Amino acid sequence: FFYPVLTGFLPIAIASSFSILAYHNVRHIVRRQLPIVRRKLDQQMTAMVLMRVIAFVCLASPYSGYRIYVTNFPTSRSMPMAYAIGRLIQAILTSVTMINYMISFYLFTMFSSRFRRQMKFVLVKKCWQQWKYWCCCINNLIEPENNIETHNIQMESEENI
């Protein structure tokens, strides 16, 4: 029950159904009296959600299918080659599933110009300026020496000794 339903196809079905509902909602947004900018932002957000759900379905389905297969047809440790192949497939599919948690940033960067602008603003204007302040903080101030006369008097007294 755990692999096939809770971690398998239930999250995929819920994400897919809500993304289809969001897409349907944005299709009907043209009929409402909303500003054009708001409509564009809603369409862009829906496109981002759709891309995210498509990636989620593509990356989560193979592992869920494999876990259902392994649960129904287990491989015995007495056959080491088949067991090793099964473990290799499981490791590869686990890695593909873990990509699911990292891919959002790249998808949003590819498909959203607004996200790219915000990312550029944060990285260049905020982070880069802060980094320059921390790492490259060179004191370029010229300070006058007020003790020039005192320094000259001390040097003369040392020469006399």
Automatic annotation (TrEMBL):
The keyword Isomerase does not apply. Keywords: Membrane, Transmembrane, Transmembrane helix. The chain crosses the membrane at residues 6-26, 47-69, 89-111. This is G-protein coupled receptors family 1 profile domain-containing protein. It comes from Adineta steineri. The lineage of its organism: Eukaryota, Metazoa, Spiralia, Gnathifera, Rotifera.
